[in-house]
Write a structure and sequence with these properties.
17 strands, 5-stranded parallel beta sheet, 15% strand, alpha/beta, Aminoglycoside 3'-phosphotransferase, Chain: A, domain 2, Rossmann fold
Length: 503
């Protein structure tokens, strides 16, 4: 039986290539639960189904036009090259035309097509997703969030109800869909954790809304809604049909991508992505919310999988259970570590800490870079020059003390929230190292010192190469290196027992 005969007349007619103005020889179709997508030549045409569901209303032509226009507006914030126009369709469902007289019978969002193989979920499945791709995504995402509209303090967005009603709905629906005794026990435990976490985090959530952290976000930022084009990540297909799904704390947005990377068996890349986003934004208090929102996002995916099981034979009947297990993984308590680096500029501290992030199977480590945090503390962007000389400007003794105090405060907050922390700084002075060793003892964290080794010739070559690239927060020069060689306090015997070295 021809599957096309089951399509609505309008969609079936639009499969005819001659209806398109460009040189189209074949039209393919794809459907989601709320849309039809027609792939014609270099373009895609997305038509909304005439549905009225609890979370959306496409039931009238006026509503479908409105949400097509919203889809264009919202997605052009970050993908203007992909989202081209809202196009009217004229005549009749049996003989549709993209140009005509009279009132339109339907509307479509016209998009530029991209290679489906470039979708990030597919890139990841092939093992080709790289840290550099996620660094670029972090750039794009933090820039987008910085410019996104801010929720008014009096709006419902980001309120207790806006956060907890959908979270509680997840448990109501999952307990109904998955009534097995063992699963019910697990879901009840996750619900208790969610309620307890919300009670603890509610003041922070409220403060973040006042501070402008609740914004008009993407709302559905999992890997299948991002695509790799010319080795750069583009976001697409944000939530247009429900304001409550996209007016969220930016921490919730970040958590979705973080959780999806873990779900794709890439905890190291999840850790890398989260660290890159927070390093760029400086919003480290978002890390205190990531697990809460991550559990919510995982259970949304579990619920969708459970609903699919009631509708058709799923490709993966264990998908709901997999996402519930992921939620349990996020709430599990794991031992935390505090790692500080030690060494002269160019010895490889940042490269060595890169490796720790990417090899973290728990996706539970964050890094604080003194080069970045120092500049942030003094109102500079990471790549900006402070025009400081050694021991002066933002490197004078007072600024040094302020920077290390800031790093300690940030590290303590993250450690107490259950994150392991790498503090990437020179730590040339024994007193600075002792301060963080004491912090580890106070927070119950395992303490170690990452002390990469390099020859003087290697140090000089690396500093000169880094200066030539002009793409690093470090302002170390050969003059700085010479000064460090004169003032460094080497690790003592008790510290060497805690040290790990790398080439």
């Amino acid at each position: 039986m021809d599957m096309n005969t089951n399509l609505p007349p309008l969609i079936r007619a639009l499969l005819e290539p001659q209806r398109y103005s460009d040189a189209t020889t074949q039209v393919e179709w794809v459907q989601t639960h709320i849309s039809w997508v027609l792939l014609a030549g270099d373009f895609a045409y997305k038509i909304k189904k005439p549905l009225h569901l609890p979370f959306l209303d496409f039931s009238t032509l006026a509503q479908r036009r409105h949400y097509c226009e919203e889809e264009l507006r919202l997605n052009r914030r970050f993908a203007p090259d992909l989202y081209l126009a809202v196009v009217p369709i004229f005549n009749t469902a049996q003989d549709p035309q993209f140009k005509g007289l009279g009132e339109p019978i339907e509307y479509a969002v016209k998009m530029r097509r991209f290679e489906e193989a470039g979708r990030l979920d597919r890139v990841c499945a092939r093992g080709e997703l790289q840290p550099l791709h996620l660094s670029h995504l972090a750039d794009r995402l933090t820039t987008f969030h910085a410019g996104a509209a801010i929720a008014a303090p009096t709006s419902r967005f980001g309120s207790d109800s806006a956060v907890m009603t959908p979270a509680r709905d997840n448990f109501t629906d999952l307990l109904r869909l998955l009534p097995e005794v063992g699963m019910s026990t697990r879901l009840t435990a996750l619900q208790a954790w969610t309620e307890a976490q919300f009670k603890q985090l509610a003041p922070l959530m409220a403060a973040r809304k006042i501070a402008g952290r609740v914004r008009e976000c993407h709302g559905d930022l999992h890997l299948a809604n991002m695509v790799l084009i010319d080795q750069h990540v583009e976001m697409f297909d944000c939530i247009e049909f429900n304001e409550d799904f996209r007016w969220i704390d930016v921490a919730s947005e970040i958590a979705f991508t973080y959780v999806d990377l873990i779900a794709h068996a890439q905890p190291g890349l999840a850790d890398w992505f989260l660290d890159e986003v927070l390093s760029r934004s400086g919003d480290y208090e978002a890390a205190l919310l990531v697990r809460f929102y991550g559990v919510y996002r995982a259970l949304v995916r579990a619920k969708i999988a459970a609903i699919r099981m009631t509708q058709t034979a799923p490709e993966n009947p264990d998908e709901a259970a997999v996402y519930i297990a992921l939620a349990e993984r996020l709430v599990a308590s794991i031992p935390v570590q505090l790692i500080i680096t030690h060494g002269l500029s160019g010895c490889g501290k940042t490269v060595a800490s890169h490796k720790i992030l990417l090899e973290d199977t728990q996706a539970a480590t964050l890094r604080l870079r003194s080069d970045v945090e120092r500049k942030r503390l003094f109102g500079l962007t990471p790549l900006a020059s402070s025009h400081s000389t050694p021991e002066a400007g933002i490197y004078n003794p007072l600024a040094h003390a302020q920077t290390y105090a800031h790093l300690r405060t940030q590290a303590e907050r993250l450690l107490r929230a259950g994150w392991s922390v790498i503090v990437d700084a020179a730590f040339l002075k024994r007193a600075d190292r002792d301060t963080f060793r004491t912090l580890a003892a106070e927070t119950g964290a395992a303490f170690s010192i990452l002390a990469p080794q390099a020859t003087p010739a290697q140090l000089r070559a690396r500093i000169q190469a880094r200066q030539a690239l002009e793409h690093d927060a470090s302002e170390a020069t050969l003059e700085v290196l010479a000064q460090q060689m004169q003032t460094i306090e080497p690790l003592q015997a008790d510290e060497r027992q805690l040290a790990q070295t790398s080439a």
